[in-house]
Automatic annotation (TrEMBL):
Compositional bias (Basic and acidic residues): 617-630
Residue intervals of the ABM domain: 2-93, 103-191
Protein name, UniProt field: 2-polyprenyl-6-methoxyphenol hydroxylase
Family statement: Belongs to the PheA/TfdB FAD monooxygenase family.
Keywords: FAD, Flavoprotein
GO molecular function, one term: FAD binding
Xref: InterPro entries: ABM_dom (IPR007138), Dimeric_a/b-barrel (IPR011008), FAD-bd (IPR002938), FAD/NAD-bd_sf (IPR036188), RIFMO-like (IPR050641), Thioredoxin-like_sf (IPR036249)
Region (Disordered): 615-634
Obligatory cofactor(s): FAD
Domain of life: Bacteria
Gene3D superfamilies: 3.30.70.100, 3.30.70.2450, 3.40.30.120, FAD/NAD(P)-binding domain
Pfam entry (one): FAD_binding_3
Amino acid sequence: MIRTMVRMRARPGLESAVESAWRTVGGRIGGLAGNLRRDLLRDAIDPRAFVVVTEWSDESALRDYRAGPVAAVLADAVRPLVEAYGPESHRVMYDVDHGGSRIFVDVELTVPADRLAEFEGGYVEVKSRMAGVPGYLREELLREPGSDVFHIFAEWAGEAEFHRWISDPAHAEQEAGPIAPFLLDFRRRLFHVAAEPGSGPEPTTGREAAAVHRTTDVLVVGAGPTGLTAAVELARRGIDCRVIDRLATPAGQADKAIGVHCRTMELWEDQGIVREAMDAGIWLTGNMVFVNGVQTHRMSWELPGLPYAHLGLPQYETERILTRRLATLGVRPQRGAELIAFSQDDDGVVATVATADGGTETVRAKYLVGCDGAHSRVRELLGLTFTGGLGRFPQLFMLGDVDVDWDMPDGHLLRFLHETDGRMDGMLVCVPLRGEARYRIATLAPPRFFAQTGGQDAPPGFSEELGAPTLADVQAALDQLAPPGTRAANLRWSSVFRISHGIVDRYRDGRVFVAGDAAHLHPPAGGQGMNTGIQDAWNLAWKLALAVRGIAAPGLLDSYETERRPEGEEIVGRAVRMAFTDELDREDLERQFLQEMSMLLSYADSPLVGECVSDPDALRDGPRPGDRAPDVTGLYRPGVGHPLRLRDLTRGTRHTLLLYADGSADEGTLAAVEKLYADLHRQAAEEIDGYLLLSPNARAPRLLAPPVVRDADGEFRAAYGVSGAALYLIRPDGHVGFRSQPIDADALRKHLHLVFGGAR
């Protein structure tokens, strides 16, 4: 894609005439072959200055426009209205590297009219601060006439300088802080200047002439919960990413996962969306199981110590919330865009994408992540196979969204099973949804649906060919399995589906990864598919971000498969076993629930975690390397008038080093903390935050860094099993990466080399 920008300045008093001339001719540009955009922007500082912006699919389209009558008509119309402008007022730029060093960055944002003065004042301050940023050259503030849409159009000496600045989280406060409230929803585009004015690709012919060429750091295929999570985590770290999805519009019905696990809620807290999710969902407070009409057990899921309960939230709501969060980071999924093919080499991936308008795009990315679901095109193109084959349940199932009138406790997931001679021959699962008496039901489909397949294997997933079950079908299932007198009403949606299950033989092939349902398929027992996919993306994204920046150790990306595939195998197996039983382990229901909620997830067998303890009993009561780092409360930081949670310290996109000392700690160890932290900060390319946690009886040393926090109530000491002097390194995904007691600086440095081997 090619963009041209022509700057002109109206003669005094002729500003409206310039706008009128544009309105007359601009529409004709849009009708030309290869035109993608045409706008007239106005300089927000100089009211007499305008910028004509056009975008074209390729060089040929641009040349045809320049040599054609429409460009001549526009030039003739504005020539008498504007002051003379020379070649320096004309810019040609591309969305791929064209051999030049300079780049332009276009940030599009909205400023409400009633806050315009606030924005303008903040912008003056931002522009002043930016003058000291290495690599930054200049910028202009443009506005779309008659609207509240602004463009900050900045020139940089090179792409590396820009990404170095944007990847530093401090930039938001140090330079962009005065206009940060207006950057919650913006769009950012990057353009390259050709090595010499007018140079560019040779004209193409045939089908290639309509192709658009784009570059990005990471191409994410699939805009479901897994793909959106990956994109959010990459964008939070300043990594340029592109998300495509073959569906033209997102789903609007509860045809997929509706259970959000406790651990996922913790991740959403870190991402800043947990409040919105809670407001949109309903708490699932327990479950009940009935076999042949007799209640076999009932369990409350409101367990003490859980950070969050189990949330009921339809997947379309999850996708809506994640999409909105992604938009605040300047990324919007490209819908109606389908991956056709890709190839990879040592430097990246080249993908061919079919777009909604019938054209094609070529996307060059450093990495590609396939989050494109059960029918994954990425998995197909990689030639991945399911270990042991793809399993399919012989039965057909149906889903429905209905109101149910019965006497059952609110907020409970209900399972009704029927057994004959000890063998299950009927099942009904009812999950509450937001709304009075509203449930998502799952049960065996009526025999007529299986008859429609001719006894042959129906396709996996949701079937459009077999038609939709009726309210009478739902009522028949309730009559057979639910308490007598149960009535269904208001069928909003229904579908027939077949359960598939399996896990692929590998999660990575070179620079291409698979995650979520592209990597593993489960029966819908507890929403495992969506939550596991989110965990996949959570594990992968922080590692990919370091790799994109060139500071990851060689084996860091390999740890994605090493850590996540065993978890996927375990979950697939457990979900298959649970599908037709009333419970796996009645002796320890609480442990099983915590396991289902991913609260017991550990990467203890990963080569990326470690420890160094001098005494076998040291840290015995604390989380092991690879375990989820538990939250604690009762922490106090000088100058803060309220207690902190440990999560307040570890939240964010970096590693967190927690150094602990009580009154028995050696003074020399405390004195060395400042230098140790500074050394580690450099080794990890400033990707580590650190804190010195002190017991109430420990003397605080004079330190510039790391900050001192008091473990006033001893909760950290108890939860992490520390005494004397010790340390825990918490990874960005919230798992323990390394621990030692006493503090072993050399062992920690060796561990960090496993993560940041590429840092300089």
